[in-house]
């Protein structure tokens, strides 16, 4: 508990959470409301449509999670921490736990706020959480944010430099998977095995095509169920996180 308290204090003593949390909530709620308000008879408002801003908020929270690590390397406070607590794994697990909790709560609040605002924006639409897919589309956002936070911490531990680590996160989440899935004759076969696409499938399975892959529609069939998609995302993340812990143990602080 002491380590968790210390890591909580260190995280909130920086400016990153102060800007990141409101920004992530703003993206999730604002974009969700915008897409919901633009719904019509041809493209009706659904629970999934209210959550179409989640990915923008996710990127912001991943940047915050990355900075929670790289900022310590930048100012060499990580060296003092490791001197005070020689068990590096314990320190990093505590740091990860705090970041994961903050990210998960932010994602959950943003998702339910976006859903609630969607009901106000489109009061005549049926936005009740009537199915498992509807609940997964909203409540599942917190799980995706939590796993993504672990991945972002791992990237921060491996790269160490703030700008470079954030660049890796942004390039992969915003560009690389999209480019790969756009390759003719290859994209549709690779898409189910890309971690963020699997996470998106977990949230959007059962929703309209314009929700599953943005406004462009989705014709890819996933060879597994939505919960397996989340487990796949978590498994890839766990493997990278373990590598980051081992690397940190062997490196000089």
TrEMBL record:
Keywords: Membrane, Transmembrane, Transmembrane helix. The keyword Membrane applies. It comes from the Bacteria. The keyword tRNA-binding does not apply. The chain crosses the membrane at residues 21-39, 51-71, 92-117, 137-159, 166-187, 227-247. Pfam families: ABC2_membrane_4 (PF12730). This is ABC transporter permease. It comes from Streptomyces malaysiensis.
